[in-house]
Design brief:
Number of strands: 5
Strand order of the largest sheet: 1-2-3-5-4
Mean pLDDT: 95
CATH class: Alpha Beta
Shape: globular
Number of domains: 1
Low-confidence stretches: none
Distance between the termini: 42 Å
Bound molecules: adenosine monophosphate, zinc ion
CATH topology: HIT family, subunit A
Radius of gyration: 14 Å
Length: about 110
Amino acid sequence: MSDCLFCKIVAGEVPATIVREGERVVAFRDINPQAPTHVLVIPKDHHPSVAELAAADVGLLGEVLGEAHRVAVDEGVDGTGYRVVFNTGAGAGQTVFHVHAHVLGGRGLNWPPG
Ligand code: AMP
Ligand code: ZN
């Protein structure tokens, strides 16, 4: 999609700090990090949200999740714990409509409480 920010990152047309890249997925640092580790993992192919990706190519969704775990290991947060989030739809806070997994870690993530 020519007007998609994350497609432009995949194409190298918009700069990003890439931390891992595979054949079908890429991981880069969030520009506005909410935790010491805040990395976005995306498929290179354009799918608007995890809903469409799950319907179109669940294997690729599995690759995104596998890569999210490898990011956590690389960042050293797999031991202390990390969170993987897909905001799905504007009502859930999704602002970029190219599916992305947020990988968050490196601080206490006190949700849900208790
Ligand atoms: P969401 O609200 O779930 O759609 O998340 C979009 C995320 O993309 C936000 O956390 C933004 O900080 C992040 N973001 C927006 N533009 C860029 C960019 N150019 N490079 C890296 N991350 C970005
Ligand atoms: Zn895209």
